[in-house]
Amino acid sequence: MSGHAIVVGGGIGGLAAALALHRIGWQATVLERAAELGEIGAGMSQAPNALRALAALGIEEQARAAGVPTHASANMRTPDGRYLQQARTDDPTALLAFHRADLHRVLLEAVPAGWIRTDAEVTAVRQDADGVTVGFAGGELRANLVIAADGIRSTVRQQLWPDAPSPRFLGRTAWLGIAELAGLPGSITLGPGGYFLIHPVGRGRAYWAYVTTVEAPGIRYEREKAEVARRIGTWHQPIPSLIEATPEQAVIHIDIRDLDPLPTYVRGRVALLGDAAHAMSPDRGQGAGQSLEDAVVLAAALAGEPAVEAALRRYDADRRPRTQATAKGARADGRRTTSSAAYRAMTTMIRLMPAPLWRKGIAADGNATWRWRPPRLPSPATRC
């Protein structure tokens, strides 16, 4: 089966969907509401499951060239600098860290020229038995399929899933930044009520994030950089240096939300993908990775089924249990790692765990989420 799809959203999930469609012989038009294509945010890491999805998309080599190995999951520390667990210098690492813009660029360069339309905010989606019509700023398009990859506040989800609950505030907030500081291996520092994450992201830069609890969403400060420095206080180096090296205007402050489980990711010929379907907290580092998985699985279903509707049913049956379980786990992890009450028990447990057992748990196949293997997509040379 081949056809034409409209992808709503030009972020990581939307571009991955377009590239996956290209690999199975479909055509696609990506509608991005922003006037210029880009990726908002700072840094992230991708786990082995996401790296396998990138390989299935044919861009693993380019992605690995853009990313940097990070030992964040192996280097666990307390605010005074003591290690709960520490990576050895010869330890392999399962995680690859990126500036979000670098991974976005890798995907963008792989999508065929002419497939992306910017300044094209979607306003309406109408479908019938034969196809879907999408109205957007600038006109209308008709296609066999619509893939909504337009984020946690998805316009398409609001239109076609009107009873779906709004994104849920999780009682946590995060400050993010990129600093010019080279040579950091990556680490996570667990403190009472919050944690500080560091990833190297290439070209002499490091990404950092401080996640903590907050009473209500929307609380902002005139000087965000000074506020996060105040909250960190005397935490160990290089944390104060990272904050100090970050330009004030580059400090991002976000409130953390996710989506309650949807009963389906599919309505007729429309499929939700990525954050539009299963936005999750960042506490398992799986948001973008699950979007990449979605793209590969959806393309495999379209390549393997005789009709769009059957392919979307297969996609929904495959993706919904896994992504909703991952989102549930991330929500629980976030509560645990920002709980002052649980801090002492959690750090004691990590400290007492034998190092070989800890390393086994953070190996490439160390947990069920990371062990995922992508379905095989038809190669460009062999597809019909």
Verbal overview:
The model has no long low-confidence stretch (mean pLDDT 96). A hairpin with a 2-residue loop joins strand 14 (187-191) and strand 15 (194-202). 34% of the residues lie in helices and 25% in strands. By secondary structure, it is of the alpha/beta class. It has helices at 12-23, 48-56, 60-66, 100-110, 155-160, 224-232, 239-244, 275-278, 287-304, 308-337, 343-352, 355-361; strands at residues 4-8, 27-31, 43-46, 68-70, 76-77, 83-85, 95-99, 116-117, 122-127, 132-136, 139-143, 145-148, 168-180, 187-191, 194-202, 205-213, 252-258, 266-267, 270-272. A 7-stranded mixed sheet has the order 6-5-14-15-16-13-17, sandwiched between helices. The longest helix has 30 residues, at 308-337. It is globular, with a radius of gyration of 21 Å. The protein has 12 helices and 19 strands. Helix 1 runs parallel beside helix 4, helix 1 (12-23) runs parallel beside helix 9 (287-304) and helix 9 (287-304) runs antiparallel to helix 10 (308-337). It has a domain at 4-71 and 93-167 and 258-335 and 356-361: FAD/NAD(P)-binding domain (3-Layer(bba) Sandwich), CATH 3.50.50. Residues 5-327 form the FAD-binding domain. It comes from Nonomuraea diastatica. GO terms for molecular function: FAD binding; monooxygenase activity.
